[in-house]
Design a protein that fits this description.
This protein is of the alpha/beta class. It has a single domain, classed as P-loop containing nucleotide triphosphate hydrolases (Rossmann fold), CATH 3.40.50.300. Helix content is about 55%, strand content about 15%. The chain has nine helices and five strands; from the N terminus they run E-H-E-H-H-H-E-H-E-H-H-H-E-H. It has a five-stranded parallel beta sheet, with helices on both faces. Helix 4 packs parallel to helix 5. The radius of gyration is 16 Å and the shape is globular. It starts with a strand and ends with a helix. The structure holds adenosine-5'-diphosphate. The site of adenosine-5'-diphosphate has 20 residues, from helix 2 and helix 3.
Length: about 190
């Protein structure tokens, strides 16, 4: 199964994607985590994206698209995956569609996790992972970037018919159960 989990920063994409991946035996691909790992390892990619991520801005589309394309080409991804943090712009969504078409594949479901801004901000401020972009000012920037650049991705998938909206408030387990109910039965 190929799944996209989508939502604003703080919606719980990372937490839920990890649980869904374990449950289904598929891979969890978080573009944000890949970038943070690259930064920690001091790779060329890490050096390229560090200041962008610290500022709460988006990494250039082509950089992300190339990274995803290279990643999903690996044999491990053939059983399926859950994408967390990608596509994050309409341009990325279009590039991803083309990529899938070339591979003769498609997405089974697009899960849109939603929660009110107050809940998102509270979660990000209290998550305590020490992320350089989890300060009050950078959270504000990330939410603005989400509304302007990322939210339109939802409309793109709403037209495509595999769109599911899931309430992202409540406990981790409540949300997980809602997501499981939203997955296609197969
Ligand atoms: P969150 O959803 O909490 O903002 P992520 O781990 O998904 O956290 O992303 C962290 C940062 O990584 C983003 O603010 C952005 O700078 C960068 N990033 C991750 N995925 C993408 C993407 N698909 N396109 C552009 N930038 C990205």
């Amino acid at each position: 199964m190929r799944i996209i989990i989508f939502g604003p920063p703080g919606a719980g994409k990372g937490t839920q994607a990890k649980m869904v991946a374990e449950h289904l035996g598929i891979i969890h691909l978080s573009t944000g985590k890949m970038f943070r790992d690259a930064i920690n390892q001091g790779t060329e990619l890490g050096k390229l994206v560090q200041s962008i991520i610290d500022e709460g801005q988006l990494v250039p589309d082509q950089t992300v698209v190339d990274m995803v394309e290279e990643t999903i080409a690996s044999e491990d991804y053939s059983k399926g995956y859950i994408l967390d943090g990608f596509p994050r712009t309409v341009e990325q969504a279009v590039a991803f569609d083309n990529m899938l078409e070339r591979r003769n594949e498609s997405i089974d479901v697009f899960i849109s996790l939603h929660a009110p801004d107050e809940v998102l901000i509270q979660r990000l401020l209290s998550r305590g992972e020490g992320r350089s972009d989890d300060t009050e000012e950078k959270i504000k920037t990330r939410l603005e970037v989400y509304k302007k650049e990322t939210a339109p991705v939802m409309e793109y998938y709403q037209q495509a018919g595999m769109f599911r909206s899931v309430d992202g408030t409540g406990t981790v387990d409540e949300i997980f159960q809602r997501i499981l109910s939203a997955l296609p039965k197969k």
